[in-house]
Amino acid sequence: MLPTKGYAAKSASSVLAPFQFERRDLRDDDILIEIDYCGVCHSDIHQARDEWGGSIYPMVPGHEIVGPITKVGKSVKGFKVGDLAGVGCIVNSCRECHNCEEGEEQFCEKGMVGTYNSRDRDNSITYGGYSSQIVVDQKYALKISPKLPLEKVAPLLCAGITTYSPLKHWKVKKGDSVGIVGLGGLGHMGVKLAASMGAEVTVFSTSKSKEKDALRLGANHFAVTTDPTTFEKLQGKFDFILDSVSAPHDLNLYLGCLKTNGAMVIVGVPPAAAPVNAFSLIMNRRQLAGSLIGGIRETQEMLDYCADKNITSDVEVIPIKDINTAYERMVKGDVRYRFVIDMKTL
Ligand code: NAP
Ligand code: ZN
Question: DSSP class of residue 96?
Fold first, then answer.
């Protein structure tokens, strides 16, 4: 077994603190990654605090993992020691069901194995990227280009793919009017990616102070959602809206902003359900849908797309000891626009 250092939550109400644990010895298909950086996703907070239920403790969060490969198993092909690799939200799946065969492992019929807070097929508990190293099957590892700054690439492993996948699935294209709700980790990647696809982007935000940044990130317009006239002015204006908000909010207001046949896709996962008024949907034949991260193949496609177009995350790099303060700031919406932990500070 491989002794590993990390930071863990011991219970839903405890702060994160140093934690020692063991990674498995490498199997033939495994690679060992020394973690340089790990992004901080709001899902880490939801799960560390058991806001979705079913959390497993102690929990080492983190699913935006990048670093060099330090060891490979004997059947590994396509990765070698010294290459940069990444791990996102998925570390295993059944590999046989229809969805796995389609490359949509996130929808594995037997349940995908999450990078942390999950039980692997052998019933072992998975531990995430707030740690010194990770062992992962090559099938679930991603190739990372050395071209871009590594700390800015880490958030692509979750925030990047979670916004790229629905933009592609709903075929967002040049000239489409796209709304991005919530300018945090996911939201700011949504802005950059939608703008790169040629969309006309509007950010819906509770934070007036983020307006300048929104425009710098590639948005064309900024709408403050605390101003009730915003929703009147933007009635029926959007082809597509991506909702990345982490806390309860009124979906009906945003549905009203869709054009005929427009679609709103939820990626944010607030802990409480939100009521949807049937009129918000039947009028103008509007669609409401959801999307969960993306499969491994599409994650690689997104990483290659971002390397090609020089798209990375805007990050604030923190030492691991500041993780609890970062969580508090994220809950207040005070993030510009992704915290990334420098794992060398562990
Ligand atoms: P984040 O960085 O904390 O950003 C969330 C943003 O939502 C905030 O910056 C804020 O933006 C807005 N917001 C927060 N509280 C709000 C409130 N009470 N009312 C209205 N707006 C509020 O979080 P994230 O990492 O981007 O994650 C966002 C959500 O997506 C989380 O629920 C996370 O669990 C979920 N998620 C889902 C998937 C998936 O596969 N579907 C993947 C990853 C994450 P403004 O300041 O601009 O208002
Ligand atoms: Zn995430």
Answer: -
Ligand minimally distant from the alpha carbon of residue 186: 1
Distance (Å) from CA 260 to ligand 2 centroid: 31
Which neighbouring-strand residues pair with 34? Answer: 133
Mutate to test the pocket of ligand 1, among 243, 245, 293, 325 (most ligand atoms within 8 A of CB): 245
- Quickly list H helices, the chain: 42-48, 98-101, 150-153, 159-169, 185-196, 211-217, 229-233, 251-255, 278-282, 296-309, 323-331
C-alpha of residue 308 to centroid of ligand 1, in Å: 27
Q: Could you tell me the pTM of the whole model?
A: 0.98
Cα–Cα dist 190/201, whole Å? 9
Q: Spell out the residues 6+ positions from residue 31 whose beta carbon is closer than 8 angstroms to its own.
A: 69, 71, 72, 73, 76, 79, 85, 135, 136, 138, 141
Beta strand pairing call for 84-87 and 65-72: antiparallel
pLDDT tens, residue by residue, 242-271: 999 999 999 999 999 999 999 999 999 999
Q: Tell me which of 38, 40, 42 to substitute to probe ligand 1's pocket, judged by most ligand atoms within 8 Å of the beta carbon.
A: 42
Domains and CATH numbers, the chain: 2-157+313-345 (3.90.180.10), 160-290 (3.40.50.720)
DSSP helix/strand/coil, 198 = coil
Q: How much distance in Å is there from the Cα of 247 to the middle of ligand 1?
A: 7
State which H helix or E strand residue 315 sits in: strand 315-319
- What are 296-345's pLDDT values in tens digits? 999 999 999 999 999 999 999 999 999 999 999 999 999 999 999 999 99
> What residues flank ligand 1, with Cβ below 6 Å?
41-43, 46, 158-159, 162, 182-187, 205-207, 210, 244-247, 249, 267-269, 291-293, 330, 333, 335
Give the ligand 1 atom nearest the CA of 186.
Answer: 26
